[in-house]
Amino acid sequence: MLNSLSIFEQAIRALPIDRSLTRQDLFIDGFLLQQEQELSVYYSPIGEYINRSAKIVFIGITPGFEQMRLAYEEAADAFHHGATIEETSKLVKYSASFAGPMRRNLTAMLDELELHRLLNIASTATLFHTNQELLHTTSILRHPVFYRDKNYTGHQPKIDRTPLLQHYAYEHFAAELNQLPDPVILVPFGRVVESTVRTLLHQGRIKKHTVLFGFPHPSGANGHRKRQFEENKDYLMKQLNSYFNT
Questions:
Q1: Phi and psi dihedrals of 162, rounded to 5?
Q2: Residues in domain Uracil-DNA glycosylase-like (predicted)?
Q3: What value does the CA radius of gyration of the chain take, rounded to a whole number of Å?
């Protein structure tokens, strides 16, 4: 398996493991992948592991700084304790992906849709540990993207107006999805991600999957999350039941 983590292994090993990492630790030239005007793309080990046995895929916009920080801390600690590249990749994926309140919001909504019953598991929260063989997590922009040094939200600049972001979304992301089994359930977080998935499907860049269109972004910053969920709940449940009953 091609794994870029090996390229950054020594730099990650050099990070301190006795304290929380800071922007000064991570916003360095050694981890900078690309820059274009006011956009910066940094490497993160969060995107390396691809679960080719997944049945469901959670899709965000891009890892924010907190996910990036946690991913580096997990990777540095794993290397310190003798983990291999592949073991570290998998550990980081499930530890850091959508960690914190976003994960709690996400799994609460999916449990309300009874996805856990359809998967025959106790709760969708277990997808991140006990039942992680069922889950793949990713983002349309796989590595952390920052606009003016702040988390990129998908709005400014828009993905389809920026060659750098188009490349990651329409080439890298599409290639990643096409390594997954067919079909799976795609859960795009919010309208920006949903729009990108629709474009990829329309252009034939990805295989046809069941997509939970209308699923709200689970971030606590999404003040319309609960209203959007209630408005779309019946439709979302119909999509899930259709997938599992065919």
A1: -130, 110
A2: 49-234
A3: 18
Give the β-pairing of 145-147 and 150-151. Answer: antiparallel
Over residues 111-126, the mean pLDDT reads 96
Is residue 144 within 8 Å of residue 64, measured between CB atoms? yes
Residue from 230, 194, 221 nearest 109 by CA: 230
CATH number at residue 137: 3.40.470
* Average pLDDT value over all residues in the chain: 94
DSSP assignment of 93-125 equals: HHHHTTTTHHHHHHHHHHHHTTHHHHHTSS-GG
1: pLDDT strictly greater than 50? no
> Would you say residue 105 lies in a domain?
yes
Q: Is this structure's pTM higher than 0.90?
A: yes
> Around 28, how many Cα atoms within 13 Å sit in the side-chain half-sphere?
11
Which residue type, as a one-letter code, is found at position 41? Answer: V
Is 199 a domain residue? yes
Range of the domain at 110: 18-244
Residue showing tokens 């469901």:
56
Cβ contacts of 159 within 8 Å, gap of 6 or more: 140, 141, 165, 166, 169, 192, 196
49-80 pLDDT per residue, tens: 999 999 999 999 999 999 999 999 999 999 99
Q: Does residue 16 have a cis bond before it (omega within 30 degrees)? A: no
25 in a structural domain: yes
Give CA–CA dist 202/179, Å, rounded.
19
- DSSP symbol at 29: G
